[in-house]
Amino acid sequence: MWLAGMNEPDFRTISDFRKERLTDIKELFTQVLGVCRELGMVRCGKVSRDGTKIEANSGRHKVIYRKKLEKSKARYEETVEQILEEAARVDAEEDRLYGDKDGYSLEHPHSVQEIKQALKKLERQKGELAREMEKAQAKLSATEEKLERMGEDRNSIGRTDPDATLMVMKEGSLGVGYNVQFATEEQVIVGFGVYHRPKDNHLLRPMLEEVQRNLGRKPEVVVADKGYCRQDNYAYVMDSGIRAAIPPQTYASDRVARGKGTYHSSKNLVYETLKTAMMDFLETDEGRDLLKRRKHDVEPTFGDGKHNMGFRKLLLRGTGKATTGLGLVAIAHNIKKLRSWLGSPTKRVGWA
Description:
By secondary structure, the chain is α/β, with parallel strands linked by helices. The chain has two domains: about 15-60 and about 160-345, no CATH class; about 65-155. Helix content is about 55%, strand content about 15%. Strands 1, 4, 5, 6, 7 and 8 form a six-stranded mixed beta sheet that branches. Strands 2-3 form a two-stranded antiparallel sheet. A hairpin with a 2-residue loop joins strand 5 (about 175-185) and strand 6 (about 190-195). The two termini are about 40 Å apart.
């Protein structure tokens, strides 16, 4: 502030810099994370996972639903079919009037002038049909593009930001937004991502792979809440040699039932085997400690972003630009952790 003489860049300058210069936010993030690792702040040991819903830069009520798009697609396809049928009828009428003959060899009761007028009328109809076909195909292509962008895992997209999805926000209200994911160790962000799938249970593996890319190794332990419970996730961490503390969806009631001896196994034997092993681990001292410590690791990270940095809404549209916005928050958070670490080395809260 002193060097700049209290001069501040215009908000447009900052916005243009963010959009045009920060083309690889992940590379900048890994550079800052590398400094944290060199200082011993992280070692890819116990990694906590969690997600939150952040509102997109899109109108809250400007949503397109899959059912509406599918109905529109069917209607446009029917319109195209009707135009093709009408075009075939016009061509058949033209052949009936003229065929391959010239104007002097026609064997019709109508005069040559009458036939020429009829052909002109057919030409106008063909031109109108061609214009209608162009409009219908353009609408059909736009609808198919939206459905393709929506994919198989979403039922809605935002009108102003098609990468965003209608989802339940933390406050319980519906909004158009993204599922923002953090992976942390010692409250240092070691991985982040922006996704349009509202549910967390599909995002454990991609985020663990993100952590491995950033730190060059798999985490020793991953801790997550019951939102990440899924058979595929249990199998993945087991096959990868990663210890995991991920309670099942019915963990509270299952604990009570197991204590009373009234627990009933599910019919899915594969999942039941994985689930039982997970619950056995969670009931150990280590498992209980991991679940408690998760609340002191990743959740304060989201709190810092939302409450201290005001990160409650994405300012840019599209997954790529939204990732840039989230990356700036992650970098700023880690730089604050670096400052705290260097300023007070003895005030280091770590897991054994």
